[in-house]
Specification:
mainly alpha, about 70% helix, elongated
Length: about 210
């Protein structure tokens, strides 16, 4: 029997019949602290349930923040709902709390904030480099887009490169080019080598930002 089940059995006479865990917790707190009739075992059981609820609530907040952001809510609008004074503080709170998509869950909240800042700084550096080298990227992409006689998988990647050529942001070409390179080493090693050189350069830019 786990701790939560044992705690609920201890408090079964005092617990509400509501299936809502928040309603149950409120009822238990009122019953245990209301008239002083609770036994030490019941108080400890209530604390056990409270701990479990606190852990569950901790997972709700970042999910709700994420849902609000996906729905178009700005960090400025989220700040007062989170009880913080600025958009920066709101985003910082979210980065500290979230676990979804985090590579190392053992990182502290501050480490997650730094990691996200480093990632964004790296992407800004890559975007700046891509726009400074737009002519080279677009020329290379045009050569890839003009290839024929490719396999079905290679053709799909080349089509992605062709689609990305329609973007005003030259950094949009980097991902499709890297994906296409994997299909070009056999028949078009020269093109694949040029793409790999660019991919290596952008990786160096991201690594340089992390090193700073």
């Amino acid at each position: 029997m786990d701790e939560a089940t044992a705690a609920r059995e201890t408090l079964s006479a005092r617990a509400t019949s509501s299936p809502d865990p928040v309603a149950q917790a409120l009822e238990l707190v009122r019953s245990v602290t209301g008239d002083g009739s609770a036994t030490p075992e019941e108080v400890l059981a209530a604390l056990t349930l409270l701990r479990g609820l606190r852990e569950e609530l901790a997972t709700w907040e970042p999910r709700l923040i994420g849902a609000a952001r996906e729905g178009g809510a700005s960090w400025v609008r989220l700040a007062p709902a989170l009880g913080v004074a600025s958009r920066q503080a709101a985003e910082r709170r979210y980065l500290r709390l979230r676990t979804e998509g985090v590579e190392n869950l053992e990182d502290t909240g501050e480490a997650r904030v730094r990691a996200e800042r480093d990632r964004r700084a790296g992407e800004r550096a890559v975007t700046a480099w891509a726009n400074e080298n737009a002519g080279r990227l677009r020329g290379l992409s045009g050569r890839v887009a003009g290839l024929s006689g490719l396999s079905e998988a290679a053709r799909a990647s080349v089509d992605d490169v062709r689609d990305a050529l329609g973007s005003d942001d030259s950094s949009a070409l980097l991902g499709p080019l890297a994906a296409a390179s994997a299909h070009l080493h056999g028949a078009h090693p020269g093109l694949a080598g040029e793409i790999d050189e660019i991919t290596e350069r952008t990786s160096e830019l991201r690594d340089a930002q992390r090193a700073r």
